[in-house]
Amino acid sequence: MNEIREVLVSRDAIREKVIELGRKISSDYEGKDLVLVGVLKGGFIFLADLMREITIPVDMDFISVSSYGNSKSSSGVVRIIKDIDVNVSGKHVLIVEDLVDTGLTLNHLKELFYTREPASVKVCTALDKPSRRKVEIEVEYEGIIIPDEFVVGYGLDYAGKYRNLPDVCILNA
Ligand code: 5GP
Fold it and tell me: What does the pLDDT average to over 18-26?
């Protein structure tokens, strides 16, 4: 683990934010048909944690989009590798992301879901790097804002490694 420089966001800080987001989502979507759509692979840990803090009935599914591969920067190309199975027509979709960076992935996903006639499409992210945005995107349920650093842990990888770290860490350049 000598590629890890430091812990940027501790597991305790993440937990606190997840509880806060879960409470807000539970109250905002009370009485509504909610589907959480986790973005693989990075979003799987956040979705699992968030879902258990939601106290209203909720469905979920995963979508898989192309990642950066072994690179640290976005190619801007978003490819759907695995789509959801749930029919979201008339339902409230909440896209659950690990991290919003340029915003290109979410922009693409939001557009895709809008074509499926949902009642609404909103976004919830564990981490956000607003300084890196290339497209304007509304993040309704915002997690922890972080500086422009490449991070791993809490579902986020570098070349397939470090997703299992409980804290969000900065990698050595
Ligand atoms: P965007 O399309 O917003 O540029 O990129 C979003 C995705 O890029 C995130 O869901 C994440 O998978 C990946 N990403 C962006 N920044 C980082 C980072 O600092 N570390 C890791 N591991 N992935 C990142």
Answer: 98
